[in-house]
């Protein structure tokens, strides 16, 4: 009897734990449940949904090459998943279900309900840990708690890592044709926003593998030196592919091992710094499971719930539209809206600007990012926002507030990135681009800063000092 593999954010044939497990048992039927209303209610925007849709199409083609049909169903809510999957199992005569686990709270609940429904129907359903080296709960502090700080988590991760945890799963061999036809994949309906040009982010395993190879060949060893400069393409730009599983962390780490004499924690400084980012990715997944309040829009640091965030619609709109008068913030926000991606240094700068300079609730920024990011992923996005807002794990101490002008002179010294996204400023001398003086601006159409750095900083410090920490 065939087994069903339910694909979600693991859109690949290679090194896919659930797919490999199912293929070991016999023929495979693939299923994708598109849950657009639910994903939209949870804030995923057009860019991510479009990338997801193209990723499913690419997966369908690769599966067809192996004789595996991909069935497609639209559901309105996660609660429909158990019945829909059971119906497919009955229609196709499948005897088992396999899928790779997802870690945000709603996804965990959905998966538990699916497993329970299959058990009740007398069928096996297995959720596999695939997107992490350690299942959440496997790495705990000496007291048996989940880690709430990155560095000890990363140390434990490296210490306990074994070769088996990174062993790659083979893609399944071609199978004899089943008497089940693949479904035609429906186009994405019209959404509130128009997705960006899909050529910026070609979907599928092939483009993901190419990116990894090019990154490691040309930039990996320079990563530590280049990663903070947004004008340089110094990072891998693999985040959308990792978020939807068009490539696995194991494939990335195996490629590093091959380049770095079999080591992850030592050796080339660029490669080891890159590995550390993949550990951050895993850390935030453990945090989502260990501290489920973060999945309920709550702060990790509970005392910060009392913070007096400001209502400032005009400030929020200026931030969203990239017209705060702080060029680095504005250029970054324009990069986000135009490309669906923002450089990590700038995610930190813009998130801190919103939460500290404007003292606007991090949840609003988190939602705006998710609406635009092609790599929008709950755990990393929430972790990043709470870090910047000083409400999260490893919280940046609230008094360390980035000065957006200093960040600009340090990380875009020639104003190259600024000129790319704010063409008006390209007319100015390089050094003048970071904080354009009003007399220099003359006819140039660029706004004056909407807040004064010092005054805004003082206001944020005041708000944080007012919190009781006990
Ligand atoms: P690289 O530098 O090449 O890193 C390799 C991979 O490691 C990334 O693709 C990503 O999967 C992972 N990674 C890197 N940095 C982090 C990090 N700080 N936390 C978790 N994982 C990391 N990343 C997302 O994938 N989705 C998000 O929605 C997201 N939102 C963020 C919001 C804020 C406010 C901040 C500060 C960071 C956010 N990040 C998010 C993390 C990081 O900015 C991006 O992963 C990174 O910029 C993606 O570019 P890259 O693939 O070139 O990264």
Polypeptide structure, described:
The chain has 470 residues and is mainly alpha-helical. It folds into three domains: 128 residues, HUPs (Rossmann fold); 122 residues, Serine Threonine Protein Phosphatase 5, Tetratricopeptide repeat, CATH 1.25.40.80; 163 residues, DNA Cyclobutane Dipyrimidine Photolyase, subunit A, domain 3 (Orthogonal Bundle). The chain has a five-stranded parallel β-sheet with strand order 3-2-1-4-5, with helices on both faces. Helix 5 links the parallel strand 4 and strand 5. Helix 15 runs antiparallel to helix 16. The longest helix is centred in the middle third of the chain and has 22 residues. It is globular and about 75 Å long. The mean pLDDT is 96. The chain binds flavin-adenine dinucleotide. Belongs to the DNA photolyase class-1 family. GO terms for molecular function: deoxyribodipyrimidine photo-lyase activity. InterPro entries: Crypto/Photolyase_FAD-like_sf, Crypto/Photolyase_N_sf, Cryptochr/Photolyase_FAD-bd, Cryptochrome/DNA_photolyase_1, DNA_photolyase_1_CS_C, DNA_photolyase_N, Rossmann-like_a/b/a_fold. It holds the Pfam family DNA_photolyase.
């Amino acid at each position: 009897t065939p087994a069903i593999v339910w694909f979600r954010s693991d859109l690949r044939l290679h090194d896919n734990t659930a797919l490999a497990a199912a293929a070991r048992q016999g023929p495979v039927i693939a299923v994708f449940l598109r849950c657009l209303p639910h994903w939209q209610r949870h804030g995923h925007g057009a860019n991510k949904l479009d990338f997801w849709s193209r990723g499913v199409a690419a997966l369908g083609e690769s599966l067809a090459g192996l004789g595996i049909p991909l069935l497609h169903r639209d559901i309105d809510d996660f609660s429909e998943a158990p019945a829909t999957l059971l119906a497919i199992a009955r229609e196709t005569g499948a005897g088992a279900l396999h899928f790779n686990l997802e870690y945000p709270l709603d996804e965990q609940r959905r998966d538990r309900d699916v497993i329970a429904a299959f058990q009740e129907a007398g069928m096996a359903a297995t959720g596999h840990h695939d997107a992490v080296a350690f299942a959440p709960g496997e790495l705990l502090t000496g007291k048996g708690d989940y880690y709430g700080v990155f560095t000890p988590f990363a140390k434990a991760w490296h210490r306990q890592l074994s070769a088996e945890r990174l062993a790659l799963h083979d893609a399944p061999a071609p199978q004899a044709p089943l008497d089940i036809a693949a479904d035609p994949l429906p186009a994405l309906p019209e959404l509130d926003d128009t997705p960006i040009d899909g050529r910026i982010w070609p979907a599928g395993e092939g483009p993901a593998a190419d990116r990894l190879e090019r990154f490691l060949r040309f930039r990996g060893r320079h990563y530590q030196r280049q990663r903070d400069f947004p004008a340089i393409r110094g990072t891998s730009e693999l985040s959308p592919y990792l978020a939807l599983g068009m490539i696995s962390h194991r494939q990335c780490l195996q490629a590093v091992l091959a380049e770095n004499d079999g080591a992850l924690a030592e050796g080339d400084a660029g490669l080891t710094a890159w590995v550390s980012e993949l550990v951050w990715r895993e850390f935030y997944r453990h945090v989502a499971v260990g501290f489920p309040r973060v999945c309920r829009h709550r702060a990790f640091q509970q005392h910060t719930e009392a913070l007096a965030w400001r209502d400032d619609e005009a400030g929020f709109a200026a931030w969203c539209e990239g017209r705060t008068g702080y060029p680095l913030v504005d250029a970054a926000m324009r990069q986000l809206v135009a490309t669906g991606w923002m450089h990590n240094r700038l995610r930190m700068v813009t998130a801190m600007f919103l939460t500290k300079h404007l003292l606007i609730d991090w949840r609003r920024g988190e939602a705006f990012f998710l609406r635009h990011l092609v790599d929008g992923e709950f755990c990393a996005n929430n972790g990043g926002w709470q870090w910047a807002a000083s409400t999260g794990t490893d919280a940046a101490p609230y008094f360390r507030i980035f000065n957006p002008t200093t960040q600009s002179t340090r990380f875009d010294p020639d104003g190259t990135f600024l000129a790319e996204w704010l063409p008006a400023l390209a007319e100015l001398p390089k050094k003048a681009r970071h904080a354009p003086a009003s007399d220099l601006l003359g006819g140039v159409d660029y706004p004056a800063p909407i807040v004064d750095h010092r005054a805004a900083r003082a206001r944020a410090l005041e708000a944080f000092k007012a919190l009781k920490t006990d």
